[in-house]
Each structure stands twice: as structure tokens, then as C-alpha cells.
TrEMBL record:
Family: Belongs to the UPF0147 family.
NCBIfam families (alphabetical): PRK04330.1
Leader sequence residues: none
HAMAP family: UPF0147 (MF_00342)
Lineage of the species this protein comes from: Archaea, Methanobacteriati, Methanobacteriota, Stenosarchaea group, Methanomicrobia
Cited InterPro entries: Ta0600-like_sf, UPF0147
Organism: Methanolapillus ohkumae
Protein name: UPF0147 protein MsAm2_02490
Entries under Pfam families matching the protein: UPF0147
Length: 90
């Protein structure tokens, strides 16, 4: 996979995270964390892998929140899977 494809993966994740951030049925603390992840993923001053790893770390904490709606949990697991495809050497 080329760097452009990984950037496309990040863009897809940001789009999906944005849906969660704007979903009023999701608790505020989760939306706040998701907004933080979006900022991290969009930070072009940091390497792609580091952004993905930081996002994964926060997202895995969010995924274990007991107040997470089921439909949001499914979307978060999908995003986690996408971010995990980004290798360190990119």
C-alpha cells in the first residue's frame, strides 16, 4: 500500500469519527475524545504512524466505555481495524 492509500485510510477514519462527534446520542465525553482523535489524525506535523498509534490508543479506551452506544461501538471497532493497517515504516 502506498502512502497515498494510507492517507486515504486516515481520511476515511476522520470522516467516520466526525459522524460520531456530531451524533447527539453519543455521550459528551466520548464525543470529546473522538474530536481529540480527529485533531491528532489531521496533524500533518507528525508522522502518519505516530498519528495512527495515538488515535488507536485513545480509541481503544473509548471502545471500553460502558456508556458507549452499541451502534457507535461497531463503528469504532471498524475504525480501529483501519488504523491498525498503517505500518511503522510509512
Amino acid at each position: 500500500m502506498a502512502t497515498d492509500e494510507y492517507n486515504e485510510t486516515i481520511a476515511q477514519c476522520v470522516m467516520e469519527l466526525d459522524m460520531i462527534a456530531n451524533d447527539t446520542s453519543v455521550p459528551r465525553n466520548i464525543r470529546r475524545s473522538v474530536t481529540e482523535i480527529i485533531s491528532i489524525l489531521q496533524n500533518d506535523n507528525q508522522e502518519l504512524f505516530l498519528r495512527a498509534t495515538s488515535g488507536l490508543s485513545i480509541l481503544s479506551d473509548v471502545s471500553s466505555d460502558p456508556n458507549l452506544p452499541m451502534h457507535t461501538g461497531t463503528l469504532i471497532w471498524s475504525i480501529l481495524g483501519k488504523l491498525e493497517t498503517i505500518p511503522p515504516e510509512v
